[in-house]
Write a structure and sequence with these properties.
single chain; alpha/beta; 7-stranded mixed beta sheet; 45% helix; globular
């Protein structure tokens, strides 16, 4: 094995440099962050979106200035340069760096987004060149999966392999190897596609809103589409990439696409740079969203063609991105015509770049999915539209295609990808097997057999091999309903008989957004209190059945994991969470308290490390659990979820979400093979009346001070009663079942409160909480 990278230096503490340093710190590695002036860690701690998984990770970052501390990079394994994008400044810095690291086992890289290695390495020694490469992170580094690695003519292969392993294993990045060409892969293809779309919009007389409807979710792209994405990234950044391409790509047949339109240039000159300046292509005002009119250069109320909006919204409802984009291009009228113009030009341009920017079509697809959040890469999109049909239509339209694709068409190849996983190699003119990383295996790959072991309308349980049963929800946003709850119970029964472990592994954007609120509202409106109570009792019984199952259960949360979703995790034996997991018990936002064992299991989680027989005052722990639930505190990462007590400190975190399922399965197998036994139920001495009274004073002061409404106070008082073990007595030992009974009673009673019902209905209608 190659020497691991254990210590990193980042030179340059701007947006990118500080973001890279933060993510290395997230991975638990010490970082030396240097700049010409002392880096401001307070600014990093306040970054939005958050750069750190948890503020404590900042302790891993040591700061300094070049003049005083640059020689300390000699103690690092990897030095990442991230200073201003000027060739003269980079060359000067590398000259100083070489003097310090000469003769040492230190790798040096640049985070440049477009400068060539050959230009940056002018004047450097052969030894330095061998240990130099480009590491192009995408902004923000914590959230964007793509990392483009670029080797120079002299870069040592072992250096590339070592950095690739570090980026993949420690940082969770999706690595794509690019060639040393301007703007590499993602920005070359992405900028071309965006600018070609803007030019086409001007030619066809469409509005920015129309373009964002067509080129957003309906096309398999992010909801931010073209202009909203530019606002987020920064119009100045887009201009920089475009100008760099136009200046550098003198032989590019589509060079004029990179010529920034006059109205965009005027925006840059006027300081209308997007979100960071309060306005770009769009801006928020007190009267609503306004759009910059390309014709006048002034803002107007957001509009767009209603027919285009209606057609694209209907297409966006199609679940499969491949079917979505196929339907989009086939749509009659402006929508389909515009989509075809921009897609066909982008697909053809990308095909012509194979061999120049990268050799492999799948690597280009990976770059666009990981760097631009496209659901399908260019060649995946081409296959979705039909390889032969799309090729023939492009030829009929007079669109230039490379000889390699023409030769591929003559072979009768069905597409760039084959069902067996092989990918067409345009250079060789044949399919090449690709060995996928087994750690990124999806549920479709892992599951055994032609049918699930268990199935109902809301969930399925599949044999994942190695004695593991995989449960996956099928409801909207993976919400908990009666069928999902029934499946969880049935899966435990079946696993105890025929399997050795369970993994709860959902698909979609979020693990679970909580209970099916509509069902609760319907029952409450009809005053079906007995039915509601039985529903809550069933959920409580099910989560406790999970908690004490004879086989280990590993939950694999990601995205929003709130309400009932977190209750499922709390009831599991262990958690393997994606790093970007947003967890919390948020029921107070809809006028309720947790009803699926959330109160008892979060409280017991806080108390479980207390040795029996210890004379310990548990009120501080009770109060902390109370605050987390009463304020609907949501952890913004898996690490923060550990800090809040939602996950155990021993639970796993997957930096690469693509590996989440495999790593959750491995954890489940490990628990089963190490002699797993379920926990033994415990009881704890809860504060009783004295605890309720203390929390009541806090609640009253918050209501009196306007920090909480009267109804917030009502909910909080009921929650305090549950967490303190009920009213009517002094501190005493309380069992789990007693707390569950209190939780169920409080939940059902709140369903009968008119203001709670208002909150639930408001959430269903507007998808945001109501404070009443």
């Amino acid at each position: 094995m190659a020497k691991p990278i254990r210590r990193v230096a980042v030179l340059g503490a701007g947006t990118m440099g500080s973001g890279i340093a933060a993510h290395v710190a997230n991975a638990g590695l010490p970082v030396l962050l240097l700049d010409i002036v002392p880096p401001d860690l307070n600014k990093l701690l306040k970054a939005k979106p958050a750069a750190l998984f948890h503020p404590r990770a900042a302790r891993m970052i040591e700061t300094g200035v070049f003049d005083d501390a640059l020689d300390r990079i000699a103690t690092c394994d990897l030095v990442i340069e991230a200073v201003v994008e000027r060739l003269d400044i980079k060359r000067s810095l590398f000259e100083r760096v070489e003097q310090i690291v000469a003769g040492k086992d230190v790798i040096v890289s640049s985070n440049t987004s477009g400068l060539r290695i050959a230009d940056m390495m002018e004047g450097r020694s052969p030894a330095f060149r061998q240990r130099f490469l480009i590491t192009h992170f995408f902004n923000p580094p914590r959230y964007m999966k793509l990392l483009e690695l670029v080797a120079g003519a002299d870069t040592d292969a072992d250096v590339m392999a070592r950095v690739r392993r570090f980026a993949t294993e420690a940082l969770g990045k999706g690595v794509v190897v690019a060639k040393d060409t301007p703007n590499f892969i993602a920005n070359r293809i992405g900028a071309h596609g965006m600018l070609a779309t803007v030019h086409q919009m001007l030619a066809d007389g469409l509005a920015p809103e129309d373009v964002d409807q067509i080129c957003g979710v309906a096309m398999g792209r992010p909801k931010s589409a073209v202009f909203r994405t530019a606002d987020v990234v920064g119009i100045d950044v887009l201009a920089h990439v475009a100008d760099n391409c136009y200046a550098s790509l003198v032989d590019d047949e589509d060079r004029d696409v990179f010529k920034l339109p006059d109205f965009v240039r005027a925006m840059v000159e006027a300081g209308r740079l997007g979100d960071k300046t309060g306005g770009g292509f769009y801006r928020k005002t007190k009267d609503g969203i306004e759009t910059l009119d390309p014709k006048t250069g002034e803002y107007r109320p957001r509009g767009g063609d209603p027919a285009i909006r209606k057609a694209c919204k209907a297409i966006a409802q199609i679940e499969s991105p491949a079917e979505r984009v196929k339907k989009l291009v086939a749509t009659e009228g402006t929508v389909g015509a515009f989509a075809w113009k921009v897609l066909s030009r982008s697909l053809a341009y990308t095909a012509r770049r194979v061999g120049e920017i990268c050799d492999d079509v799948d690597a280009i697809d990976d770059a666009m999915r990981w760097g631009y959040n496209w659901e399908l890469g260019p060649f995946e999109t081409w296959d979705a539209l039909g390889f032969a049909e799309t090729y023939d239509r492009m030829v009929a339209d007079g669109i230039a295609l490379p000889e390699s694709v023409a030769a591929m068409r003559k072979t009768g190849a069905p597409g760039f990808y084959r069902d067996d996983g092989a990918v067409f190699d345009l250079a060789k003119g044949e399919y090449t097997p690709r060995a996928p990383d087994p750690r990124t295996a999806t549920l479709d790959v892992l599951r055994r057999g032609d049918a699930p072991v268990l199935k109902n309308a809301g969930a399925e349980a599949w044999d994942l091999g190695d004695g593991v049963l995989g449960v996956t929800f099928k409801t909207k946003a993976n919400s908990l309903d009666a069928d999902v709850i029934a499946m969880l119970g049935a899966a435990v029964d079946r696993a105890e008989q025929d399997f050795r472990a369970i993994v709860i592994a959902n698909r979609g954007a979020h693990f679970c957004v909580g209970a099916n609120l509509m069902a609760i509202v319907m029952a409450a409106n009809q005053k079906l209190w007995d039915q509601l109570e039985e529903t809550v009792r069933t959920l409580q019984t099910t989560v406790q059945r999970m908690k004490y199952a004879q086989v280990p259960i590993v939950a694999a949360p990601f995205g929003m994991t709130v309400g009932g979703g977190l209750e499922v995790c709390l009831a599991s034996s262990a958690v393997q969470a994606a790093a970007e997991t947003y967890a919390g018990l948020v029921e107070v936002g809809v006028g309720l308290i947790p009803g699926g064992g959330g109160t008892v299991n979060l409280l017991w989680r806080a108390l479980e490390s207390i040795p029996e027989g210890t004379d310990h005052n548990v009120f501080a722990s009770v109060a902390q659990v109370f605050r987390n639930i009463a304020t609907a505190a949501v952890a913004t990462s898996a690490e923060e979820a550990k800090a809040k007590g939602y996950f155990r400190v021993t639970d796993g975190v997957s930096f690469d979400k693509a590996r989440l399922l495999a790593e959750a399965k491995a954890r489940a197998i490990g628990m089963a093979e190490s002699g797993y036994h379920p926990p033994v139920p415990r009881a704890y001495r809860l504060p009783g009346e004295s605890g309720i009274a203390t929390l009541q004073m806090l609640i009253d002061s918050m209501v009196a001070g306007g920090q909480a409404t009267e109804h917030d106070g009502l909910i909080a008082r009921k929650l305090a009663t549950v967490l303190c073990g009920g009213s009517g007595g002094a501190a005493r030992e309380i069992t789990e079942q007693e707390v569950l009974d209190l939780e169920r009673e409080a939940f059902v009673s709140l369903c009968g409160e008119p203001k709670s019902l208002e909150r639930m209905q408001h959430m269903l209608m507007r998808n945001k909480p109501l404070r009443n």
